[in-house]
Specification:
The complex is a heterodimer of chains A (122) and B (109). Chain A has 122 residues and is mainly beta. In chain A, 0% of the residues lie in helices and 51% in strands. In chain A, strand 4 and strand 5 form a beta hairpin. About 5% of the residues of chain A have low confidence. Chain B starts with a strand and ends with a strand.
Chain lengths: 122, 109
């Protein structure tokens, strides 16, 4: 299956610093990538949809100036958490849409997830 | 509004069979996904259904009824490693995934 990598897997930083997380599709091109946040024992929360070559689409309540998304190529999207605070500590997961994925039932798409980045802001 | 419902937690015995149900109400439908998520890890893809019926993949099967807005994930011959959260997600008319809260499955020996 398609592989998505995410780097770094762990980040510990001081309050006020910025953190950049990279998401790469390794063996397919992803025109669309998604960024999720997941707090302990809660479901995934979509933060934004990242489209290659255009501005990201943010979900309601997500500050676009705080969570900067750049999708400069078909295989790379980055999420930068600017001026991170302790409440930003969470598990950040990216996923990429593989339009060539398993689809024997008809039109459909599969999202593949990166391994996630655990952010701890002190 | 859009809504995905699945049980919060289920318990089953090693070697047994368990069925995890998911009901949904979404604006449009472009398929239903099941993902497995072990604690502290990202979700991994299990199955995709867009037409009614049963899809079997080894020990795991997924069923869909679009008219009822209902799906289930069936796990057979349960193993301890199957202890995880199982997430149901529906792709709506905008091709966005709407996620359920997940069902935590506990397997006992």
């Amino acid at each position: 299956g398609a592989v998505v990598s995410q780097h770094p897997s762990w980040v510990i930083c001081k309050s006020g610093t910025s953190v950049k997380i990279e998401c790469r599709s390794l063996d397919f091109q992803a025109t669309t990538m998604f960024w999720y946040r997941q707090f302990p024992k809660q479901s995934l929360m979509l933060m934004a949809t990242s489209n290659e070559g255009s501005k990201a689409t943010y979900e309601q309540g997500v500050e676009k100036d705080k969570f900067l998304i750049n999708h400069a190529s078909l295989t790379l999207s980055t999420l930068t958490v600017t001026s991170a605070h302790p409440e930003d500590s969470s598990f950040y997961i990216c996923s990429a849409r593989d339009l060539s994925g398993p689809n024997h039932q008809g039109v459909g798409e599969t999202q593949y997830f990166g391994p996630g980045t655990r952010l701890l802001v002190l | 509004g859009q809504n995905i419902d699945q049980p919060t937690e289920m318990t089953a015995t090693e070697g047994a069979i368990v069925q995890i149900n998911c009901t949904y109400q979404t604006s449009g439908f472009n398929g239903l996904f099941w993902y497995q998520q072990h604690a502290g890890e990202a979700p991994t893809f299990l199955s995709y259904n867009v037409l009614d019926g049963l899809e079997e993949k080894g020990r795991f099967s997924s069923f869909l009824s679009r008219s009822k807005g209902y799906s289930y994930l069936l796990l057979k011959e349960l193993q301890m490693k199957d202890s995880a959260s199982y997430l149901c997600a529906v792709m709506d008319s905008n091709y966005q995934l709407i996620w359920g809260a997940g069902t935590k499955l506990i397997i006992k020996p």
